[in-house]
Amino acid sequence: MFYSLGFAFGLSLLLGAASAGTPATDGRIVGGMQVSTIGEFPYQASVQLNGQHICGGAVIGDHFVLTAAHCFEALEPWSVLDYSVRVGSSEHATGGHLLSLQQIIPHGGYNPQSHDNDLALLILNARLNFTEQLQAVPLASAQERPTPGTRLLVSGWGFQSEEAAAEQQIDAGSGSGAGVASILRYVDVDHVDIGQCRLAYRRVLPITQGMLCAARAGHDSCQGDSGGPLVGFQEDGRATLYGIVSWGLGCANPDYPGVYTSVAAFRRWIDAQVGAWGWNALLGGWSGVQ
After folding, report:
1. Given this model, what pLDDT does residue 26 score?
2. 70 noted as active-site residue
3. pLDDT per position as a tens digit, 117-145
4. If pLDDT is split at 50, 70 and 90, which confidence band does 78 have?
5. C-alpha torsion angle, residues 61, 67, 69, 75 (rounded to 10)
6. CATH assignment of the domain containing 165
7. Of the residues 63, 70, 107, 219, which is catalytic?
8. Average pLDDT score over residue span 264-289
9. 226 in catalytic set
10. Fewer CB within 10 Å: N-end or C-end of the chain?
11. Lowest model confidence (mean pLDDT) among 22-36, 168-182, 201-215, 225-239
């Protein structure tokens, strides 16, 4: 997977991986052959540009969706008015609620070359009413990391394979959702030790403390899943948002784990942004996540 949505650096790595003879793989979420429902992932959101799906996201509060900053690299000439978010639906193109945005807040330290600090907070124009199909996902605390016993799931509507992504060369500026899955899918992945991940990417890019890695043979997220949630489930069934789909080399490439923005590493930044809006701009403040 490479989740630069077709921007020059990301696309060059994506095409490089495909031309190097990476095997073709099935599944929009690569290796995730089961179609899911929004009831199983009620926090899943579709970030859209001019009505077309470009990224995933996670509902984290009654006015807030967390996603990747790189989804908005092509913000110019687009404005916040061109973006929307669909929640509460298993399909990105219909159902649920399609909401406009009040503001897009990318992390101020986002670096499109290194992909460090790759997260953005979206402020919705309407307050969400939570139902069985629409829920906020709890955030990992600043000290919380996945353990070997954590079941990690990543969900989204991404491309069938890295070859399909390369052929489409979709970017955030095109507004094209062609080639992505129509129905939400998911896949199981395993946490990868950061030292092992750094070793894998030592000749590509640094793996920083703001990132975490996950992989499983033949299983991965792919282009179009960017910004989507990496959620861990403990044995007692508790769900926690650990990561945001960020970048990687190829889709399900056995030599390169998927790289995610670590929610724990940015918990203070998230809380600060949400807190500022809760005090200054939103009636009733932020309901939080339980």
Report:
1. 30
2. yes
3. 999 999 999 999 999 999 999 999 999 98
4. confident
5. -90
6. 2.40.10.10
7. 70
8. 69
9. yes
10. C
11. 22-36
Give pLDDT, residue 249.
84
Domain that includes residue 72, residue range: 8-280
Nearest to 183 by CA among 46, 25, 43: 46
The answer as to whether 288 is a domain residue is no
Q: What does pLDDT average to over the chain? A: 79
Counted domains in the chain:
1
Q: Which of 161, 226, 246, 262 is catalytic?
A: 226
Q: Which of 62, 118, 220, 225 is catalytic?
A: 118
Whether 289 is in a domain gets the answer: no
The answer to whether the beta carbons of residues 29 and 221 sit under 8 Å apart is: yes
